[in-house]
């Protein structure tokens, strides 16, 4: 009787289960965010923990430590339900009537201008990378 474990089959099954579990992927995204918060609090960096966590995730993806497919379901759910995350912010704006006047209009112009600048910079960067042949559509 052979009692040897099939490690390859086990890891394949675990990877398959991981890629199907949206909850586990959301937990991993939360863990990376928490790691970013921990880094910021322990080092005193003047950056948001979410930004450091995003950089940490980018580093993990760039080094090949994790694959995009391992995060796809959780990230897709977050993007699909993004509107829910803006409801509290919209309700908070209702508590500030000064934002519905001249100040609000100025803020709206700044936000729109910033959004257009980011979109233009992203389009130029993608166009440049496509022309060089670095990225493929």
From TrEMBL:
The organism of origin for this protein: Rubrivivax gelatinosus
Principal location class: membrane
Topological type in the membrane: Multi-pass membrane protein
TM helices/strands, residue ranges: 23-41, 47-68, 75-94, 100-126
Protein name: Holin-like protein
Pfam families: LrgA
Keywords: Cell membrane, Membrane, Transmembrane, Transmembrane helix
Assigned GO CC terms: plasma membrane
Localization in the cell: Cell membrane
InterPro entries (UniProt xref): LrgA/CidA
């Amino acid at each position: 009787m052979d009692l040897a474990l099939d490690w390859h089959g086990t890891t394949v099954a675990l990877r398959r289960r991981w890629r199907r579990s949206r909850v586990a992927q959301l937990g991993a995204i939360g863990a990376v965010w928490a790691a970013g918060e921990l880094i910021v609090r322990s080092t005193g960096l003047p950056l948001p923990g979410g930004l450091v966590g995003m950089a940490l995730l980018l580093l993990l993806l760039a080094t090949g430590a994790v694959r995009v497919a391992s995060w796809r379901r959780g990230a897709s759910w977050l993007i699909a339900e993004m509107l829910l995350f803006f409801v509290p912010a919209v309700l908070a704006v209702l508590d500030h009537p000064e934002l519905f006047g001249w100040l609000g209009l100025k803020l709206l112009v700044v936000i729109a201008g910033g959004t257009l600048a980011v979109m233009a910079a992203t389009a130029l960067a993608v166009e440049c990378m496509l022309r060089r042949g670095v990225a493929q559509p």
